[in-house]
Write a structure and sequence with these properties.
Blueprint lengths: L1 H32 L5 E5 L4 E4 L1 H6 L12 H4 L11 H6 L5 E8 L5 E12 L5 E10 L1 H24 L15 E2 L5 E2 L1 H7 L11 H7 L1 H10 L1
Antiparallel strand pairs: 1-2, 1-5, 3-4, 4-5, 6-7
């Protein structure tokens, strides 16, 4: 009798120990799954099996109230319903699929994510779906776009600055300029055609004195 009682007690202890290990494992998995990174598990039938609060807080607000929503309803992309579909690629044997996705969040703001998908396995190590993580790179993307815009603006500025750079063949007498095709152009025409400069006309004091000496002297005396 004592032997049977001891065996039963040992079995109960082992069961309790195993139960505690399972609870600890479950607690650890819950802590990992409910991280700040949006995570989503999708089954073979394209239904979302499980998603964490971070996912629904940013991406799943349109389908949070729907029982087992489809992935292409919750976070659609250009790859949905095509051979490039992430789930289809994983089911065909790929071990990881990484792609970019643009999505409007609950506030209507456009967000850019790096989406990483890996196989979701059952106890028999069979692929039954995918696990996707969504890394928000919106600020980085905006910074990169701003950098590209700045580079383009600087390049355009440099091009404008360089428009009239270099050596220009100019006539020592009439001051006409010879272009790269060998034709001689009035200096005004050449500069107008090779820049955004616009001309207004006046007369300098030296020319005024040479061309209109009487008017020039009268103007000088009146001043």
């Amino acid at each position: 009798m004592n032997t049977s009682s001891q065996a039963l007690e040992n079995e109960m202890q082992e069961h309790k120990l195993l139960s505690n290990k399972l609870k600890q494992s479950q607690s650890t998995m819950d802590s990992i799954f409910n991280s700040a990174i949006p995570l989503c598990i999708t089954g073979k039938d394209f239904e979302i099996i499980q998603a964490n609060k971070a996912f629904y807080g940013i991406l799943g607000h349109l389908t949070q109230s729907v029982d087992r929503p489809k992935c292409f309803e919750s976070h659609p992309s250009d790859d949905c319903n095509s051979d490039s579909c992430t789930l289809s690629r994983i089911l065909k044997g790929e071990k990881e699929v990484v792609s970019d996705m643009i999505k409007h969040d609950i506030n209507g703001q456009e967000k850019t994510f790096i989406v990483t998908a890996r196989p979701f396995l059952n106890a028999q190590k069979e692929v039954i779906g995918i696990v996707e993580s969504f890394q928000d790179i919106t600020e980085r993307k905006l910074a990169e776009d701003a950098k590209v815009d700045l580079i383009n603006e600087l390049q355009n500025t440099v091009e404008q600055v360089n428009i009239l750079s270099g050596m220009l063949p100019i006539c020592a007498s009439c001051k006409n300029i010879r272009d790269d095709k060998g034709y001689w152009n009035k200096i005004e025409s050449y500069i107008r055609n090779h820049s955004k400069v616009k001309f207004s006309h006046g007369i300098c004091p030296d020319c005024a004195q040479n061309l209109y000496p009487d008017l020039y002297n009268e103007a000088i005396n009146n001043n």
